[in-house]
Amino acid sequence: MNEERYQAGLKIRREVLGDAYVDNSLKQADAFARPMQELVTEYCWGEAWSRTGLDRRTRSMLNLAMLTALNRQHELKVHVRGALNNGVTKEEIGEVFIQAAIYCGVPAGLESVRSAREVFKEMGV
């Protein structure tokens, strides 16, 4: 593991997802799950999210579209929170899901809307 890239990723991950979420993910990581948490932190956050070619708002919207396409609702909820933290509006999130529904399928778009509504309710948005 590259410690510098891991620390950079940890910083970005905390800024986007919040300390409580990251602390909980790391705390729950036992010997089996720890390597995955390290990989995610180092490469997803420390390598991809640290690049300067796209801003965080754009990366968040791309993640929402891709997670809709993959129908990965647990991760989508995490990234709805992150998108809001990155300044993506509720209306923009809805537009991402409409666009994704056309290209990925209406059922996937509808499921993402349902998941986002749960997050909005929890966050008071």
Automatic annotation (TrEMBL):
Residues 36-117 form the Carboxymuconolactone decarboxylase-like domain. InterPro entries: 4CMD/NDH-1_regulator, AhpD-like, CMD-like, Decarb_PcaC. Pfam families: CMD. It comes from the Bacteria. NCBIfam families: decarb_PcaC. This is Carboxymuconolactone decarboxylase family protein.
